[in-house]
Amino acid sequence: MNIAIASTFHPYRGGIATFNDRLAISLKNVGHSVNCFNWSRQYPSFLFPGEAQTIKGLPTPNKKEAPLDSINPRSWKSTAYKILQYGNVDVLLLPFWHASLAPALRGVAKRVKKLSPETKIVALMHNASSHDGKAVDKWLTKRFLQAVDSCVVLSDSVKNGVMKLRSDINCNVLFHPLYDHYPAAKDKAVARRNLGINENVNLLLFFGLIRPYKGLDCLIEALGKLDEKTELLIAGESYENWGKYDSIIKKLNLQNRIHLINRFVSDSELPNIFSSADCLILPYKQASQSGVVATSIHYNTPIIATDTGDLRSSIVEGKTGALVEPNNPSLLAEKIQNWLMQDNNISQVQIEYDKIRLAKSWDAFASQLFS
Questions:
Q1: Which one-letter DSSP state was computed for residue 342?
Q2: What is the reported pLDDT for 51?
Q3: Which pLDDT tens digit goes with each residue over 209-247?
Q4: pLDDT at 345 over 80
Q5: CATH (one of 2.40.110.10, 3.20.20.70, 3.40.50.11930, 3.40.50.150) for 2-173
Q6: Residues 6+ away with beta carbon under 8 Å from 197
Q7: How far apart, in whole angstroms, are the C-alpha atoms of residue 258 and residue 240?
Q8: How far apart are CA 305 and CA 102, in angstroms?
Q9: Of 35, 176, 191, 275, which residue has the fewest beta carbons closer than 10 angstroms?
């Protein structure tokens, strides 16, 4: 098939760009023709809470390389024309994850459909609406869904959310493929020395963008209930005021037990971060699915997560980690303590993860995407 993808790609940073880059390669690997259309402007600066939208040292793509501008309706029309310059387009794939981009994606979809009625417009829904979204986000998402022919989701929870917004849409549930392009793991002792962390502590990891729904406050409170041999590495840029977390840390006197990398983390840093950890903690208050799970599986890092969204699909209880109810620091601390006290066999974790890697490969995802 001739496939077009209008979304976020390198040099934009973050999980969606990584997902789309790998998806395009996988679709080509299974025999499709793929053309990608990037943003010249993704988020307007006033909507973006982070330090930078692109990878450090790399500029935002210019309009020749990336025709799509999130706040310029003329670009939505011109992008549609550019998409159709590559002959008969069988499928236009529109990955969705944030409602602020819905007007632009809807504009492209409607123009492509008008110019080429036979082109199938497929939404790849990472979320049913924006995380921490308001009523307007749901409204924008609903309007976007009305402009597509069908959608693909990565979890049942997202499908349920999509169906509430458009009950008649054909919605195919797949899975979040596992990344296979990251640098190799390091020896744990070496990784900890590189990060300046004691080799003899139990080290928990919180990784990724820091946002309210991710429950970092619950994890910090849980850490306060664990013994002093247990420490926490927080690695990721904060998309909110760090002060509320700092207040909890000081209140519980945890300053000496928390290691903080409060910035965007590059792929080259992942081996030290994940190899140093005894367990990844996902204390999410709500979730759809998480790309961090895929990274953790790549590094054979066990996961303790709240039982929300699709997080349970990649955790084999008692073998690769554990599940706990959301927003309960005491129960989270208990689960963490129980896991750390077990005689956990890392080879058993790898055996279980190998099964997941086989089932959730990128080639399997690409083969099933339009089947």
A1: S
A2: 62
A3: 898 989 999 999 999 999 999 999 999 989 888 999 999
A4: no
A5: 3.40.50.11930
A6: 203, 231, 233, 259, 276
A7: 19
A8: 30
A9: 35
